[in-house]
């Protein structure tokens, strides 16, 4: 095994580890969004696993706190951080290499999650569904997905290639 092939293999292993780490963080973030959105009380000071400074900030900032986890979910979305292996034939895409479709799917799926959690708050006692929450969550999704696409473009310019496993 030459030094070059060892480095290539090492880089592939670290990329695969990064992808699994991002997927795990994304899943935990989605579970946290579901839990915090569907619990009986809107106060986050009662959540023992949140740091005190974070729960205090979230309780002070009302609807703005909805944007933060959705922005993080958009940034971590695994669909955006992996390269789309399918190559379009004879079609040009505005963003190229099929990156528009995964970003639209990511934004749409996060928006559906936002609507479902806000809709569920209509029937939960002590919770209120809010159009402001939907607006802030939507802004968070847009900023997160756009940030993910920008990070991907910067990584590609620097020669980093994030691929799906098995490729």
What would a concise description of this structure say?
Helix content is 66%, strand content 0%. The chain has six helices and no strands.
Please tell me about this protein's structure.
The protein has 167 residues and is an all-alpha fold. The chain has one domain. It is 66% helix and 0% strand. The protein is built from six helices and no strands. Helix 1 packs antiparallel against helix 3. It is globular. The model is unreliable at 84-96 (pLDDT under 50).
What structural class do the secondary elements suggest?
Answer: mainly alpha
Helix content: 55-70%
Strand content: under 5%
What is the rounded Rg? 19 Å
Q: Quick one: overall form? A: globular
Count the DSSP helices.
6
Q: pLDDT below 50 for ≥5 consecutive residues: which ranges?
A: 84-96
Average pLDDT over all residues: 80
How many runs of DSSP E, i.e. beta strands?
0
The main sheet comes to:
none
The total number of structural domains is 1
SSE pattern, N- to C-terminal: HHHHHH
**How many angstroms does the end-to-end distance come to?**
21 Å
Keywords for this entry:
single chain; 167 residues; mainly alpha; 6 helices; 66% helix; globular
Topology of this structure?
Layout: H1 3-38, H2 52-60, H3 64-76, H4 78-81, H5 100-120, H6 131-157
């Amino acid at each position: 095994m030459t030094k070059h092939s060892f480095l290539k293999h090492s880089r592939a292993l670290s990329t695969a580890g990064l992808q699994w780490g991002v997927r795990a963080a994304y899943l935990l973030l989605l579970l946290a969004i579901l839990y915090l959105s569907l619990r009986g009380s809107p106060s986050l000071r009662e959540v023992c696993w949140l740091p005190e400074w974070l729960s205090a900030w979230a309780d002070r900032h009302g609807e703005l706190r909805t944007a933060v986890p959705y922005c993080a979910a958009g940034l971590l979305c695994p669909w955006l951080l992996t390269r789309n292996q399918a190559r379009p034939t004879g079609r040009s895409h505005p963003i190229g290499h099929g990156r528009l479709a995964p970003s639209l799917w990511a934004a749409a799926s996060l928006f559906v999650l936002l609507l479902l959690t806000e809709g569920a708050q209509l029937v939960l006692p002590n919770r209120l569904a809010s159009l402001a929450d939907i607006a802030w969550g939507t802004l968070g999704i847009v900023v997160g997905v756009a940030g993910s696409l920008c990070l991907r473009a910067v990584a590609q310019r620097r020669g980093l290639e994030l691929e799906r496993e098995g490729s």
